[in-house]
UniProtKB/TrEMBL annotation, chain A:
Endoplasmic reticulum as UniProt keyword: no
GO molecular function, one term: xanthine dehydrogenase activity
Alphabetic keyword roster: Oxidoreductase
Name recorded for this polypeptide: Xanthine dehydrogenase subunit D
Composition bias type Low complexity, residue spans: 1-11
Keyword Oxidoreductase: yes
Broad EC category: oxidoreductase
Segments forming domain Aldehyde oxidase/xanthine dehydrogenase a/b hammerhead: 28-134
EC number(s) reported in the record: 1.17.1.4
Gene name for this UniProt entry: pucD
TrEMBL record, chain B:
Keywords: 2Fe-2S, Iron, Iron-sulfur, Metal-binding, Oxidoreductase
Entry keyword Kinase: no
Listed PROSITE patterns: 2FE2S_FER_1, 2FE2S_FER_2
Keyword Ribosomal protein set for record: no
Gene3D superfamilies (alphabetical): 3.10.20.30, [2Fe-2S]-binding domain
Name this polypeptide is given: (2Fe-2S)-binding protein
Record domain 2Fe-2S ferredoxin-type: where: 1-78
Record InterPro entries: 2Fe-2S-bd, 2Fe-2S-bd_dom_sf, 2Fe-2S_ferredoxin-like_sf, 2Fe-2S_ferredoxin-type, 2Fe2S_fd_BS, Beta-grasp_dom_sf, Diverse_Oxidoreductases
Length: 758, 162
């Protein structure tokens, strides 16, 4: 068949906003999250955790627990068959504590029983004899000579030094500050949970909610002493992640119990256990100084940043890397000194959370930028536009910013967005304190604040950051259907929609099946660092291109013609004639290609100067916050939170805006209410009663402006989206509260007592 | 113990219920209805919201035994669950609006929000934004920042009114 009809573009491709394929299942309650899994033979696993921040385990007596009717197993470190060590960067974290516990909540023993309550009661009957040790709970003391040692190799996880330009710079105008950021929790709603099913041949299948199946697999197989083919991971439905599922939680525990009992084991944390069961955002102590000319141009900047890594390293090293290399914000600064450190303490372990090292720094550099503007009598937007990076500038590690860096434009956009109207009449619901009826407007002051940020996208400092995609194109019921298979975790952000969109655009097919995510295909890398649309998107695009090449080779052979290309689902000649349909070419069988795809390499930075091309891409955003503050009671109502962000290319514009909304809410939460309170190594508020996250009453309406300055180095020009909103929203809110109150407010979250000064 | 109740219109008898079990646990682990979610299990997040005799409750705070001889409606009972045809028309307007408006990301809060919104629109078919915010204040969402949830509630209410 030869025709000249024009093929039509497939709908639902990139740049459109097709609905997410799992939406229907999620609104009907049928989507299978990791805590929904069930097996008729399963037993329940629970964890016994340390009550002490630092103690030696003298003895563990499991006799009474084992005697509880219904109990199948009680396991301790002595039952670990392989290497009792896990960890993302350093294998320093025991699967079960051996000899020493280093934080309150560290897993010590496991119980499997026929009912979760039976298991919990049995766990309570395990007798652990501890000898308490001095605990290091103030990270500012961690490197003192007399500080308690958390690990044998000392308390320093990583330090980074950045030196650029004049080592002893001076400037006519100098401002400085100290800032402190509290410990934030990811507070994903779906608890850590999963189901481990033994295969009867020594291996198992683990269905679990995670951010990176393959790095979990590596760690679990090491603990179990098994090969990778014996530890097969399957992504269960993930109820949010935000960094908190990068490290193992119940994965290895359920696996140990399943292999030991020979039965499927389900584990599902309570909210309280969840607060102990995953890493948090690092609390940070920051000391900054800016030197500037009288016209406001930065001449130098220096920073000392300290991150509390807690008891185990997790991803503290990379957080220090980000805090160091990105910690002065999106500004062009000729002379720089940064010293960033992450230390071990006996506090809860800290690791990845959305914004990863940049969130803490942004509170400091944005507060100091306001201070500088005020000192000079300059406009706070103008000073950011003046100093903001531009394409072609070098950042503080000497790396050239080789795609758009629209700092001045972004901050200008948010400044020019309509402001909310002044309060006209008293509606309690719109006042600080709400229907608690704490004010009718008296003592309420409005403030406006601004912030800009930038964030690296993807893994950095020379990490081999890749993703694998397998795409199959075949006829189903006479229609061409694509199946895309990656191991890249869908955690709610919409990666599965993006994978479908790319296949539609590249292959011209309507129907795209997303294969369940598992370890039978190569690694997709981590669902973190705002990287999956870029990296797994790049892999899917490359796999589609490989499929197309194979299809065309087959068509060339079949039709005896050369110079063919694909246009939608048509095979087209060099002269534009449609010479065959895709279905004809696929009639003899499907085409499948698997591609491992990498972004441009990054490089380690120089250990002494901190110079180097550490990151592959930078993403920029700006926020403007408007707040009403009851200055007598210290209560804050965020009235508006508006933002502008460059996303390179919006593959799914609606999902992009959804990421920006949600990310902004988390940043606002840290500014105003979210903190895990830790005193003497003990967590004081492990519940949603006492750890507050923004409700729909707390969130204001948002105006979102999306720029699309394509990054010529990235697939389709995309730029990572998920993290920048979490970084710039909080500092804007804090700035607005400072503007309303006139107070310095050098610690977040902003507590009422700090706002009122009592 | 044994409890007997009506769930999504059907009479159910459930054996071997331990007295301390919540209605949430009984629904999820004993009746195979995992739609109501276990995010906090202390009444703070609203993810486990179901109708109990027509009133929305946190099923984590109701003992399973308290549901004896009462009527429970879960998110599965609102629409879309009786078949696997993929027919959009089978969904409740609230469910449709949540999908259509992009109000679902990870979706863990969604079943609770769907039930709460269903109840709001039943009581108040034309809610103002402050009324929507007040009604949904007990349902935590960590992904969306609530903007598209507001869109979905407004859209569902308009759909029901028409």
């Amino acid at each position: 068949m030869t025709t000249t009809e024009t093929s039509t573009r497939t709908s639902g491709g990139i740049g459109e906003s097709p609905l997410r394929p799992d939406g229907r299942l999620k609104v009907t309650g049928r989507f299978a999250y990791s805590s929904d899994l069930w097996h008729e033979d399963m037993v329940w696993g629970v964890t016994l955790r340390s009550p002490h921040p630092h103690a030696r385990i003298v003895a563990i007596d499991t006799t009474a627990a084992l005697a509880v009717p219904g109990v199948d197993a009680v396991l301790t470190a002595a039952d670990v068959p392989g290497r009792n060590a896990t960890g993302l960067e350093h294998q320093d974290t025991p699967a079960l504590a051996d000899e020493v516990v280093r934080y309150e909540g560290e897993p010590v023993a496991l119980v499997a029983a026929d009912h979760p309550e039976t298991a919990r009661r049995a766990a309570a009957r395990i007798v652990v004899t501890y000898e308490e040790l001095p605990a290091l709970t103030d990270p500012r003391r961690a490197l003192d000579e007399d500080a308690p040692q958390v690990h044998a190799q000392g308390n320093l996880v990583r330090e980074m030094h950045i030196r650029r330009g004049d080592p002893e710079p001076t400037a006519p105008v100098v401002v400085s500050l100290e800032f402190e950021v509290g410990m934030q929790d990811q507070a994903f709603l779906g608890p850590e949970s999963g189901l481990a099913i033994p295969d009867g041949e020594g291996g198992l299948d683990l269905h679990v909610a995670t951010q990176w199946l393959h790095v979990d697999q590596q760690q679990i197989q090491g603990v179990l002493g098994l090969g990778p083919e014996q530890v097969r991971l399957h992504l269960a439905g993930v109820g949010g992640a935000f960094g908190g599922r990068e490290d193992l939680s119940m994965h290895v525990h359920a696996s140990l119990l399943a292999l030991h009992t020979g039965r499927p084991v389900k584990m599902s944390y309570s909210r309280e256990e969840s607060f102990f069961g995953h890493v948090h955002r690092h609390p940070a102590w920051l000391r900054y100084e800016f030197g500037a000319d009288h016209d406001g141009r930065l001449r130098y900047a220096s920073a000392d940043i300290l991150f509390d890594g807690g008891a185990y390293a997790s991803s503290t090293g990379a957080v220090v890397g980000n805090g160091g290399t990105l910690g002065l914000g999106p500004y062009a600064i000729p002379n720089v000194r940064v010293d960033a450190r992450g230390v071990y303490t006996n506090n809860p372990p800290c690791g990845a959370m959305r914004g990863f090292g940049c969130v803490q720094a942004a509170f400091a550099h944005e507060a100091l930028m306001d201070e500088l503007a005020d000192r000079l009598g300059m406009d706070r937007v103008a000073i950011r536009a003046l100093n903001g990076m531009r394409e072609g500038d070098r950042n503080i590690t000497g790396q050239v910013i080789d795609s758009a860096a629209p700092v001045a434009e972004l901050i200008g956009i948010v400044r020019d967005l309509p402001l909310p109207a002044p309060r006209a009449e008293v509606d309690l619901r719109e006042l600080p304190g709400g229907v608690s009826n704490t004010t009718h407007g008296e003592g309420v002051v409005r403030g406006v604040g601004y912030a800009v940020t930038y964030k690296n996208v993807g893994f950095s400092e020379g990490f081999d950051d890749y993703s694998t995609a397998r795409v199959r194109l075949e006829l189903t019921g006479g229609e061409p259907v694509a199946t895309v298979h990656t191991a890249a975790a869908e955690v709610g952000q919409g990666l599965i929609t993006v994978e479908q969109q790319i296949c539609r655009t590249e292959l011209g097919v309507e129907r795209v099946v997303v294969h369940p995510k598992d370890t039978t295909v190569g690694s997709g890398g981590s669902t973190s660092a705002s990287r999956q649309t870029y990296v797994t998107g790049g892999a899917v695009k490359a796999a589609c291109e490989a499929v197309r090449t194979t299809v065309l080779a087959r068509a060339t052979e079949l039709l005896g013609r050369t110079g063919l290309h694909l246009d939608g689902d048509k095979v087209v000649s060099a002269t534009g004639e449609v010479v065959a349909g895709l279905a004809e070419v696929l009639a003899d069988g499907g085409v499948e290609e698997t591609v491992e795809w990498r972004h441009r390499p990054t490089h380690p930075i120089d250990p002494e100067t901190g110079q180097g091309d550490a990151h592959v891409q930078y993403a920029f955003s700006a926020h403007r916050a408007v707040v009403d503050v009851d200055v007598e009671l210290g209560l804050v109502k965020v009235v508006a939170l508006d933002t502008a962000q460059d996303v390179g290319k919006a593959i799914n514009p609606d999902a992009v805006v959804g990421q920006i909304h949600g990310g902004s809410a988390q940043g606002m939460g840290l500014a105003l209410m979210e903190e895990i309170v830790v005193t003497d190594g003990h967590v004081r508020n492990p519940s949603f009663t006492d750890y507050l996250i923004p409700t729909i009453l707390d969130m204001p309406p948002m105006q979102v402006e999306v720029l699309e300055y394509a990054d010529p180095h990235a697939p389709y020009g995309v730029r990572g989206v998920g993290e920048p909103p979490t970084i710039s929203s909080g500092p804007a809110v804090a700035a607005a509260v400072r503007a309303a109150t006139g107070k310095a407010l050098r610690r977040v979250p902003l507590r009422p007592e700090a706002i009122t000064g009592v | 113990m044994r409890i007997a109740l009506t769930v999504n219109g059907a009479r159910r008898e459930v054996d071997d219920v331990w007295e301390g079990e919540s209605l949430l646990y009984a629904l999820r682990e004993r009746m195979g209805l995992a739609g109501a979610k276990n995010a906090c299990e202390q009444g703070e997040c609203g993810s486990c919201t179901v109708y109990l005799d027509g009133l929305p409750v946190c099923s984590c705070l109701v003992a399973a035994g308290q549901a004896q001889d009462r009527e429970v409606t879960t998110v599965e009972g609102l629409g879309g669950s009786s078949e696997d045809s993929g027919d959009e028309a089978e969904l409740d307007p609230v469910q449709q609006a949540f999908v259509r408006c992009g109000a679902v990301q990870c979706g863990f809060c969604t079943p609770g929000l769907v039930v709460t919104t269903h109840d709001l629109i039943r009581r108040n078919p034309e809610p103002s934004d402050p009324e929507i915010r007040e009604a949904l204040a007990g349902n935590l969402c960590r992904c969306t920042g609530y903007e598209k949830i507001l869109d979905a509630v407004r859209s569902a209410a308009a759909e029901v009114r028409s």
